[in-house]
Amino acid sequence: MHRSLPRPAARGVLGSRVAPGALCLLACLACLSLPAAAQAPRVQLGGVMGARALLIIDGQRQLLAVGDSAQGVRLRTLQADSAEVEVQGRALTLRLGAAALVPESGATRPRPANEIVLTAGPGGHFVTDGAINGRPARFLVDTGATTVSLGQADAERLGLDLRHGQQGLSSTANGTVPVVLLTLARVRVGEVEVSQVPAVVMPQPMPYILLGNSFLTRFQMRRENDVMRLELRR
Predict the structure, then answer these.
(1) According to DSSP H, which parts of 129-175 are helical?
(2) By three-state DSSP, how is residue 164 classified?
(3) Distance between the two ends of the chain, CA-based, in angstroms?
(4) pLDDT tens sequence for the chain (234 residues)
(5) 109 Cβ partners below 8 Å, 6+ apart?
(6) How many CB atoms lie within 10 A of CB 129?
(7) Half-sphere exposure of 50 (CA within 13 A, CB side)
């Protein structure tokens, strides 16, 4: 007569006995405890204050010195108008006033480039870098200007052909002056680019290219204190 021997209970990794019915529950709990892939923060250089950088990380302001970290962002280097940060092991170069950036990775894709985030500088003005027809330009946001406005020297530097523009007159503080009306093929601010933007070329030199309503009306504009958000209309 054979006597059946009792089956040994399952043992955990530490040698403790685990009831067979609890194995499935432990497996499920192990799966639930796995961390999800972290979402990379969006980061922008809002200003430079002496030896510290004002970073805007996912909409929150952080004042960091070189070597400091906040919200997963570490400041590596700092210049007068730029900074290098490290986000999820990737180095990013930030320009003052440029659009927010998010690092590319296998698990995280950058958000669509449909929003421009600007931070007010001295005097409350919004100044930012961009490009016209692929050439670098420095803009000043001017909601009172009907079109993008630039001086003749900037127009020549950008390679604009004024011979094919429309001649006109414009009233200024110095009286009526001759101007050239034309259409810019491409205007980019940050990572957002729009096409066929009306512009006017003034004869006098201008310190900035005025980013007027021929560009701004392509966007839904929101302002929160000293931060301006321009969301591209679809």
Answers:
(1) 152-157
(2) helix
(3) 84
(4) 445 445 544 444 434 454 544 444 434 433 444 344 457 888 888 888 888 888 889 888 899 998 899 988 999 888 777 888 988 888 888 887 666 676 665 444 444 568 999 999 888 899 999 999 999 999 999 999 999 999 999 999 999 999 889 998 887 767 788 899 999 999 999 889 999 999 999 998 899 999 999 999 999 999 988 899 999 987
(5) none
(6) 17
(7) 4
